[in-house]
Specification:
This protein is about 50% helix and about 20% strand. The chain contains 10 helices and 10 strands. The strands form 3 sheets. A 5-stranded mixed β-sheet has the order 6-7-8-9-10, sandwiched between helices. A 3-stranded antiparallel β-sheet has the order 3-5-4, with helices on both faces. Strands 1-2 form a two-stranded antiparallel ribbon. It is globular, with a radius of gyration of 18 Å.
Length: about 220
């Protein structure tokens, strides 16, 4: 089956769509998200590189691929690259992105076909298209959202310590969004117990309920330290 929109086979279109959705992925993650074999994925990635739809770099001895603006525009849903300058991301951004991806994969496998996922890139594109009022919320978007029936969970992958004031402001915003029905639950995924304790204290102070998940326990060997 050919996707006439960008002149790609259906499989290559789906692989590029995964790259566009997450912005930055490894081959292992593409395998988990598509169930395609590695040779199919590698051939597609090589073609995407030639057409400058993606960029490849190495981090932690692994090949990592990021979507370019051209590649995102080929899909036509998000329409921006992983970064403005399309440079290799620093380790903090890389680590956060990888743990976000692995968390989505974890929940996707856990819920099987029951859940729908939107990641921050998709939320930014959607909110930006919905007018000025919605665009103001872009700075406060979750890392990803899980929807199952009437349940809509906002998920934060929290790896760095924020000031109590900044964190309280963010949690207060979530409290308001839950009250108006934007989300039904709030989940914080963490590695550091110090970060969990800080989030828990601020959540009590502002009066919002938070569910916690330990990334080390969830992801096992897929931890980017």
């Amino acid at each position: 089956m050919i996707n006439l929109k960008v002149g790609l086979t259906e499989k290559r279109y789906l692989i590029l769509s995964v790259l566009d959705k997450f912005g930055i992925v490894t081959v292992d993650q593409i395998v988990k998200l598509t169930s395609f074999n590695r040779s199919t994925i590698y051939y597609a990635l090589r073609e995407f590189e030639k057409k400058e739809l993606i960029r490849k770099f190495k981090n932690m001895q692994k090949a990592v691929y990021l979507i370019t603006k051209l590649g995102s525009e080929a899909i036509g849903d998000i329409n921006f690259g992983f970064s403005k300058d399309e440079r290799t991301p620093n380790f903090a951004i890389f680590r956060h992105s990888m743990l976000l991806n692995e968390s989505v994969i974890f929940y996707r496998e856990h819920f099987e076909e029951q859940a729908r996922f939107e990641v921050e890139r998709e939320l930014i594109a959607k909110f930006a298209s919905e007018g000025l009022q919605r665009r103001k919320q872009i700075a406060n978007l979750p890392d990803f959202v899980i929807e199952i029936g009437d349940m809509k969970q906002a998920v934060e992958v929290e790896l760095t310590r924020k000031s109590p004031a900044k964190l309280a402001k963010k949690l207060l915003n979530y409290k308001r969004l839950i009250e108006v029905g934007e989300y039904t639950h709030l989940i914080y995924l963490y590695q550091s117990l110090a970060i969990r304790r800080l989030v828990a204290k601020c959540a009590v102070d502002v009066g919002v309920e938070v569910t916690f998940g330990n990334l080390d326990e969830m992801l096992g060997g897929n931890i980017y330290v």
